[in-house]
Amino acid sequence: MLARSGDGVNPREANTSSTDLLKSSETVSLSHDTPFLMPHSALILAGFADKNASLFRRFQVPLGDPAAWVDIHGHTIALVRDLEMDRVRQKSHADHVTCPAEHIPPLGLSADRETATAQATVQLLRSKKIETVITDRSLPFLFAWHLQQAEIEVRYDEELGVLDRRTKSDQEIEALAKAQSVTEEVMLIVLRRIAGAKADAEGRLSVDGEVLTSEGLQSFAAMQFLQRGFSMGHGAIIATVPQVADCHHSGSGAIYTRHPVVVDLFPRDESSRYNGDCTRTIVHGQASQTVEAMHAAVVEAKLAAESKLVAGNLASDVHKASEETLKQHGYPTSRGTITDAPSIQHGTGHGIGLDVHEPILLDEGGGEMLEGEVFTVEPGLYGRTDGGVRVEDMLVVTEGEPRTLNRLPFGLDWS
């Protein structure tokens, strides 16, 4: 799934259990920065672990109730709802697991669970004589407000929850490889369903008398993933002319022969919570010369980008290699404006892991890439008249040639 610079990701910046994934990570509980080493300071993350990947990575339980993770110079404390304490003790590597009822302030705890968790967190910090906390971009304002009311200084570390998640462990890469393998399995089923369809006199495709639509194919893919223990919480993109001219349009309406269809699937493996992300483009019947030329240029741009996907290189150089290749084929850049003729509308890729879109972006301003980072590489071209073409794989950064986690070919014909 493509990410653009405004999509909430900072451009600067296997069947494996979740517990095993955390055991192999080397920097989960420590910030990279020196303020963490100050006397009377602590690191804090808070919120809902079922929505916050950095919290989940520490708790190893997708908690649907508010919780806080406190790290005081390497001593970690998990503050969770009382009925979750045993589960967190079993799954996480917290040194101590506690609950709000064990940290009641003088005026008592609120009946509101989230407020009570924030109050108890402050009381815990006060008992440890903490004067300063360092936190990440996701700290709920409710927690920040209660910390400020207690005159505990709140400092922001822009790399916390980013840098420690960028480099993936072997077990995390194994989880991503499994997610991508299942994504490709369902991708192939969807592509063959389109390829094997029959076209009526108007060119509409159908299978067993049922007209194929973007919405119907998305539901079909969701069922396939559900049967494999995956979810499509972010939906899917199965789009054709003219909606695909907007590269983020999920697609709607009937699928027609001879028109390119962009199929972008990005499900989550519910057993590990790591994501797959794969895109292929299919044409039922004979593709036009224009679409064949677009496809050839996109594949060439993808290979050019991957040649720069090396530890120590800049992520911006990966994007530049892709964009320059497409420009050499005569395609203009048109970011933010939909065009009739094919154009370049987005960056080249993004980090991926517990979130589909993770820093850093393979785009303008992208910083130095690290060994063990995992990225999608997904150049594309889009226009109202001829449709769109995108091809996307997932790759692991090494000191040499990147390791691809994909096996599917790139072609337009899937019959």
Automatic annotation (TrEMBL):
UniProt KW rRNA processing keyword: no
Enzyme class, broadest EC rank: hydrolase
Keywords tagged on the record: Aminopeptidase, Hydrolase, Metal-binding, Metalloprotease, Protease
EC number of this enzyme: 3.4.11.-
Single GO molecular function: aminopeptidase activity
InterPro entries: Creatinase/aminopeptidase-like, Pept_M24, Peptidase_M24B, Peptidase_M24B_aminopep-P_CS
Region named Disordered: 1-21
Pfam families cross-referenced by the UniProt entry: Peptidase_M24
GO biological process terms on file: proteolysis
Domain Peptidase M24, chain residue ranges per copy: 175-399
PANTHER family: AMINOPEPTIDASE (PTHR46112), AMINOPEPTIDASE YPDF (PTHR46112:SF3)
Assigned protein family: Belongs to the peptidase M24B family.
Protein name per Swiss-Prot or TrEMBL: Aminopeptidase
